[in-house]
Amino acid sequence: MEASLNMQQKLETKLSLTPQARQSLEILKYSLVELENFIKEEAEANPLIELKEIDSKHILEMARIQAPEAISSMKDESFDPLLQVPNREESMEAFLMEQLVLLKHLSKKDREIVLYLIRNLNDLGYLDCDIEEIAERFQLSIERCEELIAVLQSLEPAGIGARNLAECLYLQVVRKQDAPQNTVLIIQNHLEVLAEGDFQRIAKLYGMTNEEVENLFSYIKQLNPRPLREFLSSKQEYIIPDIIVEEMNGEYVIHLNDRYLPEVSINTYYVELLRANASGEIKEYLNTKLSEAFLLMRGIEQRHETLFRVTESIVEKQRAFLNNGKKELVPFRLKDVAESLGLHESTVSRTISQKFIQTPQGTLPLKTFFVRGVRIQGGEVESPLFIKEKIRAIIENEDTLRPLSDQKIANILLAEGIPIARRTVAKYREELGISQSTKRRRKK
């Protein structure tokens, strides 16, 4: 068998992003604070970029206080609102991403999905999205989604990515060697009973003494129900909205909160130098830096334009919420906005990532307005809030001597043309602050 060399021509089409497109996408995902940091970094590295700093009083005016104890700090003359903004390098996302990079066995798509999960963690470190939504978004099986959630949950701190308190505690206990016997089983099956202090019932169920149950309870109380508590310092008590929506004469007006950002302009001294007698390496250097400065300015402009357009779409769709509050949220997906604006879904995802909007109903994350609906009989889609109110009404009218289990509630909803799983009923019931059926039972 002879080996031979030959040349072949192959025609191949590849999508290649221009430097302008890459930078625009990068800028688009930044929150207001992150963008401010990025602009300053670019200005430090580019002498042609000139910044006009804003008055810090504007920052203080736009700050939305999350914790009452922070009010006293604002009265202190030495209080600097700039120091109350968390540094991007110290963020939760960066901390988790550093660990994700070390997991060499993950494919590029796996990393993309885990990053999406990271960006859907709430401030306490709990995963704030439905597994069905993840499966639909990335076209995965539920089993594969669970595997990737497990990857997130393997990161530090222990408990990260949990979907409820029981799972958060479980994730911490399984990493420890000193957990008392039956700790995992009790957390998974009888955490509410333990929290109620019914030690005798726990002791009877698991063949333990009351003293052993008390020791187990003390052990569980030492666990951390908030995995990201160490990240929640006073520096994160202020939210500066990226967008402000105000009602004026019955209409909603959108303002981009760009006055928080330093004004970016071109340093005229270097431009004149370039026009005058710059040559050789100096000319090449100045031209490069001038192009970079224009790229930055265009990227900021495109971010503002896209953010404004996405917000317009949100306001149009969720007007009832702006008028009446959270109960009026209607099903709304990233795909809906992408199709209406002619954008890619990932662009919309970047646009709403880590951004806040100030509305007549309060200052909220932009992703609040995106609600995954439940398809009911006849093909119509209802919001989870509608389903929750149905569950509340069913429970309010149940026989208190024989409260309905989550499965029975799911069966009732199915009979009304609303097919949802028992675990979804349990999740919505917990979010409504309603106890499970055994707790609701009343004695004669």
TrEMBL record:
Keywords on record: DNA-binding, DNA-directed RNA polymerase, Nucleotidyltransferase, Sigma factor, Transcription, Transcription regulation, Transferase
Positions of transmembrane segments: none
GO biological process: DNA-templated transcription initiation
A GO MF label: nucleotidyltransferase activity
PROSITE patterns referenced in this protein's UniProt entry, alphabetically: SIGMA54_2 (PS00718), SIGMA54_3 (PS50044)
Domain RNA polymerase sigma factor 54 core-binding residues, every copy: 85-270
NCBIfam families xref list: rpoN_sigma
Classification via PANTHER family: RNA POLYMERASE SIGMA-54 FACTOR
This protein's name: RNA polymerase RpoN-/SigL-like sigma 54 subunit
